[in-house]
Write a structure and sequence with these properties.
The chain is mainly alpha-helical and 171 residues long. The protein folds into two domains: 1-58 and 85-112, no CATH class; 116-171. Helix content is 63%, strand content 0%. The chain has helices spanning 12-21, 25-35, 40-49, 69-77, 80-89, 92-101, 117-164. α1 (12-21) runs antiparallel to α2. The longest helix has 48 residues, at 117-164.
Length: 171
């Protein structure tokens, strides 16, 4: 088992495997960078080092792999079939989560790696900031509620005064 690089949360092997298994390789580089609290260039460098990705400007070695034409043709003929299957099995949300995390389809969500501590901290600080804003708005609402209650009391006092003076006033 390889060790993690300094400042990284995942090993090179884990990074390469997650990139290799990704449905959208260009997005996966950003996801891996976020998970490891590093930049995209560092992830690309790891992929270059392990020859998972070719450096730009370097000629390609060998032909590009052909896409499964039967599968592509079938999907083009009936694009709703896959959506229908997801809805019928009730796993649409699970599929979206596994696609977003770029883990192989069918991986139990309990086996999806936990986010690194820097991501958790960032989320924690964002939630704390949101909580502060909510509390501030609650305070504003309380101030407005008190002001409305005071105005209603003053109106009631004024109406009582007008009635005591037997002055007709139409509301």
């Amino acid at each position: 088992m390889t060790q993690t690089r300094p400042g990284m949360h995942m090993t090179d092997d884990e990074i390469c495997a997650m990139y290799r298994d990704a449905a959208n390789k260009s997005k996966q580089i950003g996801i891996l960078a976020d998970l490891n609290c590093t930049d995209k260039d560092k992830i690309r460098e790891i992929l270059y080092d392990h020859e998972i990705m070719k450096k730009p400007g370097r000629p390609s070695t060998g032909p590009k792999p052909r896409k499964d034409t039967k599968k592509a043709k079938k999907e083009a003929e009936n694009p709703e079939a896959e959506k229908q299957a997801d809805n019928n099995t009730g796993q649409q949300a699970s599929v979206r989560i596994t696609e977003r995390l770029s883990v192989p389809e069918g991986t139990p969500l309990t086996k999806v790696p936990a986010p690194p501590s820097c991501v958790i901290k960032a989320i924690h600080y964002r939630l704390k900031d949101i909580s502060t804003h909510i509390q501030s708005h609650k305070n504003d609402i309380q101030i407005f509620t008190d002001a409305i209650r005071d105005l209603e009391n003053e109106r009631d006092d004024l109406m009582d005064y007008l009635r005591s003076q037997q002055i007709e006033y139409e509301e």
